[in-house]
Design goal:
The protein contains eleven helices and eleven strands. The radius of gyration is 26 Å and the shape is elongated. Helices cover 44% and strands 22% of the residues. Helix 8 (202-208) links the parallel strand 7 and strand 8 (219-221). The chain is α/β, with parallel strands linked by helices and 295 residues long. Keywords: DNA-binding, Plasmid, Transcription, Transcription regulation. This is Putative choline sulfate-utilization transcription factor.
């Protein structure tokens, strides 16, 4: 079949898809790296070839016609399939797996264990994406994500989950310096500021144990990694999430302040994108992550 004789200009079709998705000639032009006039010209050529308008021009707005919506839906599906095929071809000869997680989970849990995975799978290249913002599983850039939260999730399939427990931790030096006994207003509290509703704060912890004293954090950080490093250096008491601080407890750089623990509301979840392309590398990584999470 000679598609060239049946299809309009591919440039015009790509332009139409961008305009529909961005809902603006100007935004589409910026994305495509052309002028707004060039976008308008491509749409005009497409309308001329199809013999009907694609948009109804309104004051400071455009509205796609029914024919435009039908063509746009077909374009979105087709271009998505093409993009996925191209990605599959690019990675078919590469044993690459991309794992996404928060900065703290990557730093304190994943990275110390990666040597084990790499020794078992020397031919697989590992790419780690660390960010505290929610990882976009629909982008196609992430093969596997470790996300803290309460499943199910609308953008991924949960392969394995693990609970966690929270307990106050500090350095051995701080433990020697502080007054013996339970937590009190004389302790120095290290807080992590987080917008995640599942993140546990000192106020919540003290409320759980029935503490009645007023407290103010002496240090406050935006990343949990900074909180833990401050605690390791004797700067005060931090809330220790078990999975993240276990290596420090094992090494003796952190100790638990007392035996009180609190079960976190969320869980660590190994997630696969809903439209994940299975590869030997990702299958091995999932199996290894699952075993390591439950070890």
């Amino acid at each position: 079949m000679q598609f060239r004789k049946r299809l309009p200009s591919l440039t015009a079709l790509l332009t139409l898809e961008a305009v529909l998705r961005r809902k603006s000639f100007t935004a589409a032009a910026t994305e495509l790296g052309v002028t707004q006039a060039a976008v308008s010209r491509q749409i005009a050529l497409l309308e001329e070839e199809l013999g009907q308008p694609m948009f109804v021009r309104k004051h400071r707005a455009i509205e796609p016609t029914p024919a435009c919506r039908i063509l746009g839906a077909s374009l979105a599906r087709s271009l998505s399939d093409i993009a996925e095929t191209v990605d599959a071809i690019k990675t078919s000869g590469q044993d690459v797996v991309t794992i996404g997680a928060t900065i703290a989970f990557s730093s304190f849990w994943l990275l110390p264990r990666l040597a084990d995975f790499r020794s078992q799978n020397p031919g697989i290249q590992v790419r780690v994406v660390s960010q505290d913002e929610k990882i976009d599983l629909d982008s196609g850039e992430i093969n596997i994500a470790i996300r803290y939260g309460i499943p199910p999730f609308n953008d991924g399939t949960v392969i394995a989950s693990k609970d966690d427990f929270i307990t106050p931790v500090c350095s051995p030096d701080y433990l020697k310096r502080r007054q013996p006994g339970p937590l009190s207003s004389t302790d120095e509290y290290i807080e992590t500021h987080s917008s995640d509703p599942l993140w546990f704060s000192w106020a919540q912890w003290l409320d759980q144990i029935g503490a009645s004293f007023d407290f103010k954090p002496s240090l406050r950080f935006s990343h949990y990694t900074e909180t833990i490093f401050a605690a390791c250096n004797g700067q005060g008491v931090a809330l220790g999430w078990g999975a993240l601080v276990q290596a420090f407890l094992d090494a003796g750089t952190l100790v638990t302040l007392h035996d009180l623990t609190y079960k976190a509301d969320g869980r660590y979840n190994i997630l696969l994108p809903l439209r994940a392309r299975r590869t030997a590398a990702s299958d091995r990584a999932v199996a290894w992550l699952t075993a390591a999470l439950h070890a």
